[in-house]
Specification:
Layout: H1 7-24, E1 30-35, H2 39-54, E2 58-59, E3 68-73, H3 78-97, E4 102-107, H4 113-122, E5 128-130, H5 138-145, E6 150-152, E7 173-177, E8 179-180, H6 191-195, E9 199-200, H7 203-215, E10 220-224, H8 240-248, E11 255-259, H9 268-276, E12 283-285, H10 293-298, H11 305-318, E13 323-330, H12 337-350, E14 354-359, H13 377-400, E15 406-414, E16 421-425, E17 431-435, E18 444-452, E19 457-461
Parallel strand pairs: 1-2, 1-3, 3-4, 4-5, 5-6, 7-10, 10-11, 12-13, 13-14, 17-19
Antiparallel strand pairs: 8-9, 15-16, 15-18, 16-17, 18-19
Helix pairs in contact: 1-5, 8-9, 12-13
Bound molecules: 5'-deoxyadenosine and iron/sulfur cluster.
5'-deoxyadenosine (5AD) binds at residues 76-77, 188-189, 287, 289, 327, 329, 358, 360-361, 363.
Length: 462
């Protein structure tokens, strides 16, 4: 059974937003939402912006001048948490000068008691503290915060809240959440504790959102969730491969991507759907985490090095030319230098198109937090650097092959660093910057790569 927030509750929240708008009395007020972490958090921030817009706030990017500032936080690694404490500290004096400003902190960090206690005692200028399960109550939280500090953290396996409007960052590409939470309990990971158990949206709700996006002119949809291939398992819904197929039948949607999938859940049915469906992009993210079977066991990943490599072989046989990316953790407590060699071996054998590498970060309350380290910090850092170098060589070789090639790119908008240039991605998820007219935004165009480098591809529309 899907535990949905009732329509009446969502309506009550919309009424509160309208009341806040009335109270603000036509004043021109601004709000800034800062997001840390993954695409799921980015999707939640779009909903926070949607609710703030309904309250009459105009979105801005300046946390120092905004009337409302919300930090949507990530708990996956310590450095993301430290960043947030830095942001909060920097706002202390600004709040003294402008006491009417409202500061909120939400997201994964807030589902941890020790963090809430620290904010309560040391960051008294924060007006709103709310967890991942309280997001749909944000209007009520804002309303109460206009009078006094609010703390709303619920310890639950989680709900599914529908019909909260989004303010999206693009008119061309969009993310759609299909499921929330995770049941995998990898031993290093905090996500199952802060995001709750796996719960799926109904396929009717997902398709309605995708159809709405198509009607607004969106061309590419990324289906997101902590483990999308578990979609439907919690509630007897259709499975993820069927869902992909239904989304691909929506007219106007030209490309579909999805993240994230656990290797153990990549089924033959999913591979067959990807191989036969031209709308599904030629890209798959297959998190490795470690190449050592021993470390994978300690991580509770449920596959061995050999099983992972066999899976990649199977995927590549079905889809030659598919771009494969991965996540790798270096310095897991039980990892030895030999184990790390196994990781490098997998990286070389697979030849990834992109590797997201992370140094292991101890997360309070996870099983790995109790394990002793085998390697020193210096050894871990040196292994990390070797991994970055190895991957850079692989990527360099791959990108050099694209020199003078013609690739199909969905034009997403102007380049962030140079607004005379356009930017977009190939079906393999490679970012390309190129010259061309802004009228092309939203179209799939042919781009000739005129300059291929390790970390960037530049071209021109032909
Ligand atoms: N330390 C370092 N990296 C982590 N990840 C998850 N938990 C941790 C941790 N404690 C990484 C994994 C995951 C990605 C989203 O973040 O590689 O796939
Ligand atoms: Fe964390 Fe593992 Fe779940 Fe991914 S699959 S969110 S790494 S517990």
């Amino acid at each position: 059974m899907i535990q949905k927030v009732t329509d009446a509750e969502i309506q009550k929240q919309k009424d509160i937003s309208a009341r806040i708008k009335e109270l603000n009395n036509g004043k021109k007020l601004t709000a800034c939402v800062v997001t840390l972490g993954c695409v799921q958090n980015e999707n939640d921030s779009e909903r926070i912006r949607g609710m703030l817009t309904e309250m009459g706030y105009e979105m801005c990017n300046n946390s120092k001048t905004a009337d409302v500032v919300i930090f949507n936080t990530c708990a996956v690694r310590e450095n993301a948490e430290l960043k947030v404490f830095g942001f909060l500290g920097a706002l202390k004096n600004i709040k003294k000068e402008r006491p009417e400003m409202l500061i909120g902190i939400c997201g994964c960090m807030i589902q941890q008691n020790h963090i809430v206690e620290r904010i309560k005692s040391r960051y008294k200028h924060v007006d709103m503290i709310f967890g991942t399960h309280s997001l749909h109550r944000f209007p009520q939280i804002m309303y109460s915060a206009l009078q006094k500090r609010v703390i709303d953290v619920e310890d639950t396996d989680g709900y599914v809240a529908e019909n909260i409007s989004h303010v999206r960052g693009s008119n061309v590409i969009a993310t759609v959440s299909v499921m929330y939470g995770c049941n995998n309990f990898c031993s290093y990971c905090i996500v199952p504790y802060v995001r709750g158990r796996e719960r799926s949206r109904t396929h009717e709700d997902i398709l309605a959102e995708c159809e709405g996006l198509a009607a607004q002119g969106y061309k590419e949809i990324t289906l997101v969730g902590q483990n999308v291939n578990s979609y439907g398992k919690d509630c007897g819904e259709i499975d993820f491969a069927d869902l992909l197929h239904l989304v691909s039948e929506i007219e106007g949607i030209e490309r579909i991507r999805f993240v994230s999938v656990h290797p153990k859940d990549i089924t033959d049915k999913l591979i067959a759907e990807m191989a036969s469906n031209p709308k599904i992009c030629k890209q798959l993210h297959v998190p490795l985490q470690s190449g050592s079977t021993k470390v994978l066991g300690d991580m509770n990943r449920k596959y061995s090095k050999e099983q992972y490599l066999a899976l990649i072989d199977k995927i590549r046989t079905a889809m030659p030319g598919l771009a494969i990316s991965t996540d790798i953790i270096v310095g897991f407590p039980t990892e030895t230098n030999e184990d790390f060699e196994d990781t490098l071996d997998v990286v070389k054998k697979v030849g990834y198109d992109m590797v997201y590498n992370f140094i292991y970060s101890k997360r309070k309350g996870t099983p790995a937090a109790k394990m002793d380290f085998v390697l020193s910090k210096e050894e871990i850092k040196s292994n990390f650097d070797r991994l970055v170098e190895t991957q850079a060589e692989i990527l360099h070789e791959k990108n050099m092959k694209l020199q003078d090639a013609v690739v199909e790119v969905l034009v997403e908008g102007k380049s962030r660093t140079d607004d005379t240039m356009l930017t977009g991605r190939t079906t393999e998820n490679k970012v390309v910057n190129f010259s061309g007219s802004p009228e092309k935004i939203g179209e799939i165009v042919n781009v000739k790569i005129t300059k291929a480098a390790t970390w960037a591809l530049t071209g021109e529309i032909i």
